[in-house]
Amino acid sequence: MAAEETASHGLPALAAQGVHKRFKIPEERSHTLKERALHPLRRSRHEQLHVLKNISFAVEPGEFFGIVGRNGSGKSTLLKCLAGIYRTDEGRIWCNGRMSTFIELGVGFNPDLAAYDNVALNGIMLGLSPREARARYKRVIEFAELEEFQDLKLKNYSSGMHVRLAFSVAIQVDADILVIDEVLAVGDAAFQQKCFDVFNRMREEGRTIVLVTHDMGAVTRFCHRAMLLERGEMISIGDPRDVADRYLEIAFGREVGYEDPSVGVARMGDGTARVSEVWLGDNREEGRAVAPQSEPLTLKVLVRFRADVLDPAVSLTLLNEHRQPVVVATTTEDHEQTGGFHVDEWAVFAFSFHNMLAPGRYHTLVTISHRGDGVNVIDRFAGGLSFVVSGLTSSGGMVEIPVQTDVTRWGIWPGADVPSTGGVL
Fold first, then answer.
1. What is the mean pLDDT of residues 349-354?
2. pTM of the full predicted structure?
């Protein structure tokens, strides 16, 4: 059924209901004929590996749907079930429309044949008629930018050339539903942009696309909705940004907490107060590991005082992955007098700002000093929190500041390289 007909009937383009998939892993194997002959009645025992557990979702016609999850979460297995490569143990899958799978590019290529023969064979395997496959050869070779190498056998192609040719063949299939596994961008930067342009065009044409990826930027950039898998179970489904943030929390969650104090600057100070804990967010119990870009960010420092201290100054430094200071904040900017603290008293110092940090991992360095010039250090603790900033944009700088740009035409100025402006632009 075509995409337009599917939409008119109100049916999803692709749907799964209660899908389970298990694999049998043998505990004992007979590796030789002799072993089988000596032990003909030996029954091999198997361990059940439950890869997918009760997965249910529906993809609407024309929707760009993302599937994310850590390695081993069942993403590729689910795609192979959707494509009919694997049979499900339980549950049902519906597909309304012609499907093209981008699971393993170049499957079926013969390394001893040239590009023309491989394009024709691979196109037929993907559902084109022999005439259609041959007619589209020119478009395929031009898109892959391999005109100079089309007479070479594939065994002489580089890995990048091989993948570009396979990708170029795959996108020639007139499918209503595209199932893509980690092949959204292949080749160099220029060819990657061509891939992005192709998928943008397909989305505008109303094609239904299911994408499996670890690239959260691609998920939030392209997908209308996304689903998160973890250990074969569906954890979340909905807005791509929410799913991407949840994925990062799971991926980096185990790394929340105190780092080795020996990393970075060694702990120092007179010890009249000690940093006990640093956490991300308002709630200490949340244990957050991810701070979304362009949203408010709060870091809190728990301090225990071992002696009476008057007006201590607490400073927080955020270090990037290269241990370079990116943000430095201190309580003295807003509170010159923080008050008097007594022995065995606990206090929480909070630092809040709008998160314009570039995506990446950041580490905390907390310094407590006596009131004054900050030389008299009470505690300097580099074993605090490590967290990740997630975001859509990464320009390569340390921060992502919104910048407004403008272009003004000066026209043509004969006889001068640069026009005189009289000091005014």
1. 93
2. 0.60
